[in-house]
Amino acid sequence: AGARAPPEFLYVEDSGVMRKMVSASLQKMGVVVHVACDGEEALAKLRAREYALALVDLGLPKVSGLQVIQELRAYEQARPGGGGRRQPAAIVSGTVVQAEVDEALRAGADFFLPKPVTADQVMKVYAEVLRRKRELAPESTAGGGPGGGGPGAGGGGDGGPEKNARVLVIEDENSTRKFLIKILEKFGYQAAAARDGAEGLARLQEREYFVVFCDLNMPVMDGFECVQRFRHWEADQLRRGQARLKTGGLGGG
C-alpha cells in the first residue's frame, strides 16, 4: 500500500510571528500547513477546498473568527449535497471566558483553544477529529475492525459509544469543567462532574463511566493519586470478579 498523504490544515492568524512559529512546529510533525492572514482570505480558501482541520483566530481583521465559522457553516449547508459534511474547525483566542466559549460553539466551532497555541495541542485536537470520524464511519461495525467491540468499546452495535453514554469530568477549574461538559453534551454524552480528585474517586467507585477525563493538578487529591487509587480499587474488584475497566486521560493545568 502507498504511503498515507499527510494531513492538511488551514491556520488563520493575523500575527506573522505566531503564524510562522505554529506553522513550523506543525510541519515538523508532518502536517502540510496552509495559512491565511485575515477572515476574507480564510473564507476564500475554506470555500475552495476542504482541510483536515481549520484553526481560526478569534480576533481577525476584515472578518472576525466567529464570522468565518458562521459563514463556513452556512456555505456547507447551502452547497449541493453538502448538508451533512462539515470541516472540523477550532477557534483560537487569547482569552478564555465562558461567554466567549459559548458564542464560539454556537457559531459552529468544534473546539476552542487558548493562546499561545502549541503544535502538541493542535495535534491532540486532530486526534480527536480522527476518533470522531472513526466512530461515524460505516465500516466500524462490531467485530475485529478498529471500531469493533474490543476493550473500551461502548457496547453499541456500531462499535462506537452507546447513545447517551456516561462520561466523568474531574476538574477543579469551573470554566474549564463547564466547557468540557458543554462539548461532551453537544455530542450526545451524559456528562457528570467532580471538583477534585477525592470527589472524582468517590464517583468512580459509585458507578461505571464510558470514559473519564481527569485533571492533573487539583486540590484535596491530585489526578495521579485519584487514578492510582482507582486502579488499586479496580484491581481489588477484579480479584472479586467485579471488574469495570475504564478508559481515561490525565490533563495538565
From TrEMBL:
<dbReference type="GO" id="GO:0000160">
    <property type="term" value="P:phosphorelay signal transduction system"/>
</dbReference>
<dbReference type="InterPro" id="IPR001789">
    <property type="entry name" value="Sig_transdc_resp-reg_receiver"/>
</dbReference>
<feature type="compositionally biased region" description="Gly residues">
    <location>
        <begin position="142"/>
        <end position="159"/>
    </location>
</feature>
<feature type="modified residue" description="4-aspartylphosphate">
    <location>
        <position position="57"/>
    </location>
</feature>
<dbReference type="InterPro" id="IPR011006">
    <property type="entry name" value="CheY-like_superfamily"/>
</dbReference>
<feature type="domain" description="Response regulatory">
    <location>
        <begin position="8"/>
        <end position="130"/>
    </location>
</feature>
<dbReference type="InterPro" id="IPR050595">
    <property type="entry name" value="Bact_response_regulator"/>
</dbReference>
<protein>
    <recommendedName>
        <fullName>Response regulatory domain-containing protein</fullName>
    </recommendedName>
</protein>
<feature type="domain" description="Response regulatory">
    <location>
        <begin position="166"/>
        <end position="253"/>
    </location>
</feature>
<dbReference type="Pfam" id="PF00072">
    <property type="entry name" value="Response_reg"/>
</dbReference>
<feature type="region of interest" description="Disordered">
    <location>
        <begin position="136"/>
        <end position="163"/>
    </location>
</feature>
<keyword id="KW-0597">Phosphoprotein</keyword>
<feature type="modified residue" description="4-aspartylphosphate">
    <location>
        <position position="215"/>
    </location>
</feature>
